[in-house]
Structures are given as structure tokens and as C-alpha cells.
Amino acid sequence: MRFLLYVAVCSSILSAGAAKADDATLRQRATEGMRKACDYFQNDVSCEGGYLWRYSEDLKKREGEGKATATMVWVQPPGTPSVGMALLNAYEATKDPYYLEAARRAGHCLVRGQLRSGGWAYRIEFDPKLRGKVDYRVEPSAQGKARHNVTTLDDDTTQAAMRLLMKLDQTLEFKDEQIHQAVLYGLDHLVQAQYPNGAWPQRFSAPPDPAKYPVKKASYPDKWSRTFPHIDYMGFYTFNDGAIGDVIDVMFMASHIYKDPRYRESALRGGQFILLAQMPDPQPAWAQQYDVDMHPVWARKFEPPAITGGESQGVMRMLMAVYRETGDKKFLEPIPRAIAYLRQSALPDGKLARFYELRTNRPLYFTKDYQLTYSDADMPTHYSFKVGHSLDATERDYQRLAQSDHHASSERKDVQPRKASPALVAQVEKVLAAFDQRGRWVDDDGLRYQDKGDTTNRVISCSTFIRNIRILSQYLATKPD
User: Fold this and answer.
1) Is the dihedral of CA 13, 14, 19, 24 positive or negative?
2) 68: number of Cβ within 10 Å
3) Sign of CA dihedral 368, 242, 78, 138
4) Reported pTM
5) What's the Rg (C-alpha) of the chain?
6) In what helix (H) or strand (E) does residue 387 lie, and over which residues does it extend?
7) Which of 47, 108, 136, 365 has its CA 20 to 30 A from that of 41?
């Protein structure tokens, strides 16, 4: 019996030793692999510290959300801010200053692309001849010359840039003057661009005139055009693609980092706009965009005045985020009515329509030649006119918040590292197995925006790089065995 116990103890010791050795070996491989991948992205892929979306394997063809040149970088995720944040995650996991410097380079790239209007366009141009056509803040002002100066809040573009710069500023202890000033300039202009009712537009080049934007609650128009009116939708109050919600998130983050009450107040005014924008019965959800009278309104030729089954879900998640920051139950009040409405609006296949006709609640679609219709038989494929939903999860989160005591945290607390789970270890092994000798992950995915007939298959994707660096960072941040 004693002998069997002795054997069991020895086996346990040997197994623990082997596990530690395996963990140490994997950590070494993960450390070396992450450095090699970042070296490649820094030295071969990067332009002025910035990044696009996808590249052909030989780097000769490049694209963001469109064909790109070797002197362009993209701001819109998964471009420069997203890659920069992955590099910053690597620094936080390893404390290796190499990654902080790489993230700083991405931040300085964004500084050079900040517009005089305060934010960013989708891309930044570094060709000297083309840069003169854009009103970049760091360049001399060109009096009397028309230059592009339109900040976009679409697709988390300016917001993603602000998050990276703010996080960098904090990590660098506010000592990098270029980054610090870019952050303050951007935040000031986002505050100035906010409408009196708390909303933000999709794009802006200057602050709004408050006298032209009265504060009203959302309502149904007496009538609306069923043909696309070719109007400029840039200044509409915009939920589409998370525009307002992403700015609210930036403002709360700024409030935590800089302790300036203006930023928290701006975020709360954004939350108040969400309350104003909830449509009355019989459709108590939200539209993608509203005009100055707070009526749902056309944007692009495939985005009619309607109640949206898509953005309404993001709006509810943002209301819960505002509640977590404030503890004010008024931000939870709209959610049960919206959930009930969306449940009863589900299509036969369980999905939601992207658009529901005002008042009648009939699903709206478009034909391939962009005629508004009630039929889903001939829809364009570039846009989701039917969307999935997470109403069960949203309702669970709502119930949890509504039934629990609120404890808002003014700081984002550090989490003590835990041991790596078997699932995470398996992910790391998979990431390292896909790694080539040059430090690349090459996908058989193709490019999207090249000339007709392009046969490029093998591509280097920023999305893949970001995902894999995050997995490696997450593993290296865990507690060793």
C-alpha cells in the first residue's frame, strides 16, 4: 500500500513537472512568435506606423474599404487604431517596451491624420502631393483653399482613433505631448459637435448652430417619400453603425482617464438623446437616423425612414452601459417595451427585418435596382436587410441590472492573472501552427476591391493579425504553471 502511494506521489510530481515544462516551452514559443509577427508588421507591412485592412501576399496589392496605395493607411477598423490597440495589448501582457513603441508609432500616425475639424476620415494619405488636398491639423492652414475636412463617426472611425490615443496617453503617463494634444483637441471638438438634444451626426466639419436644432421627442411624420430623395444625410442624428453609442463610450472613457466633468456630461446627454429618440407606440424602438424634427428619415438609397431591428439592439446595449455608469433607472425603463415590440416583430425564420414600415410595421426590403418593396425575393446582397438578434441575452442582462444593486466603478480595475485554460492553450497552439517562417499569417481569403477579374487568393489580413496577437497576449498575461 505504501509502495502504491509512493508511486502515485512520484507520478503526480512528474506530471506537474512535465506540465510546467510544457507551459514554459509554449510561453517561449508564444513570446518569440508574437515578436516575429510584430516585427514583420512593423518592418514590412506598416506605412508611417499605420495599416490598411488587407494585402496581397507579396504586398503589391493593398486595400481598406476600397483599393489603396502604398502611401495610404486606414483609420476605420480593423485599420490603424485596431492594430495599434493589439500592439498595446501585447505591451500590457509582456511589459516589453518594444510593443509600446510600436503602438506609439501607430498613435503618431493617427496624429498626422487628424483633421482640423477634430476627428478622422476613413483613411490617411502620406503622399505629399495628395496630403495637400486634406485639411490635416498638423499641416499649415491653407486659407482660401477648399480641402477635405469632414470628421466621420461612421463605422467607429474617429471613435476607434480616440480610444487608442487616450489609452496610449494614459500608458505613457501623459508625457507624449503630440498624442496628448491630439486627444484634447479631438475631445473638445466632439463636445462641440454634439447637438443640443445630446445627439451626434454621422459626419461633421464644424459645430452646429444650436438655434437650428430644437430639442424634441421622436415622432412619426405625417407622410414620407417612398422614393429616394437624394438628400445630404451627413448631419442627421445617427444611430446607424453605432455612431452615437460609440461616441458615448469614448466620452465615458475620457471621463475616467482625464477626470474632466465635461466628458461625463457629454456622455449623459448622449444617453438622454437615446431616451428622446425612442419611438412612441405602436413601435417603441429606434430608427437609424432622424431629421431635425425627430422624424425617421432617409439616408442612403437603401436606408428608408423606418424602425430598425438592427441598430435598436445596439441602442439597448448602450442604455445598459449608461446605467452601469450612472445607476439611474431611467436608462433601463425603455428596454422592456422595446424587447417586447421586437419579439412580436420577428420574421417567420426567427430573424428581424432591418427595416419596419412606420406605423404598419410591415418589413421593408429593396430590389436589386433599389426599389422599395414588401417582398424579400430580389434583395441586394451587399447589405443585411434581415438581421439576427440577441433578445434573450439582452433581456437577461436587463433583468440582472434591474434586480441588483448598482455599484458604479469610476476606475477600470486590474484583474489578477489566472492560469491559462485548456481552451486558450489550444487556441495558442493553433495560432502558432498557422505561423510561417517570415512571421506571417497568410489567409486563403482573397481581396475585395481590386480590378474585375483579380485572382489574388493568399492575403495578409489585419483582422487575422489582431485576433492572433490578442490570443497570444491573453495567454502571456496568464499565470505560469
Assistant:
1) positive
2) 22
3) positive
4) 0.92
5) 25
6) strand 386-387
7) 136
